[in-house]
Amino acid sequence: MAIKKIGILTSGGDGPGMNAAIRSVVRCSLSNGLEVDGIIRGYQGLIDDEVVPLNHRSVSNIINRGGTILKTARSKEFMTEEGQKRAVATLKKHAIDALVVVGGDGSYRGAQVLFEKYHVPVIGMPGTIDNDLFGTDQTIGCHTAVNTALESIDKIRDTAHSMERIFVIEVMGRNSGYIALEVALGAGAEDVIIPERKFNYDQLCQNIVQGNKMGKISWMIVTAEGAAKAPDVASTISKMTGLETRFVVLGHVQRGGTPVGDDRILATRLGARAVKLIKQGDFGKAVGIWEDEINVIDLPKACKRENKNVDEYLELIKLLR
Ligand code: F6P
């Protein structure tokens, strides 16, 4: 089947660089003689028939903007067969022949359902700050999120050091310790708590007390939200050591802001490859970057990856403490 028109949607948690991805897909498609429709609010927009035509100008001045001009959502309705059928009907109604989905693991699973069950030609692009997808060294948004968190943690370090306090800083990552590990290493934190590994409070508190005896009074501990909540960690440390402990939850600031160069460039390169795959009729794939080369793998394989650097990072954080 010759593809004439493609649709693009962003889904799940937004990430800085998603707009650069949309721009790349739209402009590469138009240059290849394909029309493009944008779907608003991810899969929910497909169900609700929220579709807008996109042209060259629709994506002007967005390469440097955080968020996503197409908006995004986590659609519960799309998990149901009824919702999926309505989504497919919207694609048919607008004569959308292929769909590009920019999102994380949940969005990829949704795309796989469309591909496998309803034979919709789909391509996945990795858009999540969590950097937890297989087949790609980085996901769109992860670089900016780490930098954003680092900026805040550097500020916390100033006050932690000046007031000689223990700080627990919670970063995003329900199932992924990627941001926590990166920022712990990049900010020079003393410890990190991640969902991928068990955490030993006795050891942490022993280190703090011992360090304290030797004159080390300020500590920064980074925790991923899915591993332990900062207020709980802070009160546990306080109880176990008797030392004053503060906590900060960085929250959704990590998802916003101007995308850094790495995220824009990644998004732009991957968008171009997504369109190339569509032109070749190669569907059910996810695009990624692997050792700086573009990598294409089957969608189901791309849904989950454990960070391969976990042990190296944990070791280094310990060594540099
Ligand atoms: O998009 C990924 C992510 O930011 C995770 O790191 C986090 O656990 C989750 O989304 C938060 O989702 P929500 O914004 O729906 O609360």
What's this model, at a glance?
It is built from eleven helices and eleven strands.
Give the topology.
Layout: E1 5-10, H1 18-31, E2 35-39, H2 42-47, E3 51-54, H3 81-93, E4 98-103, H4 105-118, E5 122-126, H5 142-163, E6 166-171, H6 178-187, E7 191-193, H7 201-213, E8 219-224, H8 230-241, E9 245-249, H9 261-280, E10 285-290, E11 293-298, H10 299-302, H11 310-320
Parallel strand pairs: 1-2, 1-4, 4-5, 5-10, 6-8, 6-9, 7-8
Antiparallel strand pairs: 2-3, 10-11
Helix pairs in contact: 1-9, 5-6, 6-11, 7-8
Structure characterization notes:
The structure is a single chain. It contains 11 helices and 11 strands. The strands form 2 sheets. A 7-stranded mixed β-sheet has the order 3-2-1-4-5-10-11, sandwiched between helices. The N and C termini lie far apart (59 Å). It has helices at 18-31, 42-47, 81-93, 105-118, 142-163, 178-187, 201-213, 230-241, 261-280, 299-302, 310-320; strands at residues 5-10, 35-39, 51-54, 98-103, 122-126, 166-171, 191-193, 219-224, 245-249, 285-290, 293-298. The protein is an alpha/beta fold. The mean pLDDT is 97. Helix 5 packs across helix 6 (178-187), helix 6 (178-187) packs parallel to helix 11 (310-320) and helix 7 packs across helix 8 (230-241). Helix 4 (105-118) links the parallel strand 4 and strand 5 (122-126). Helices cover 43% and strands 18% of the residues. 6-O-phosphono-beta-D-fructofuranose (F6P) binds at residues 12-13, 74, 104, 128-130, 172-174, 225, 255.
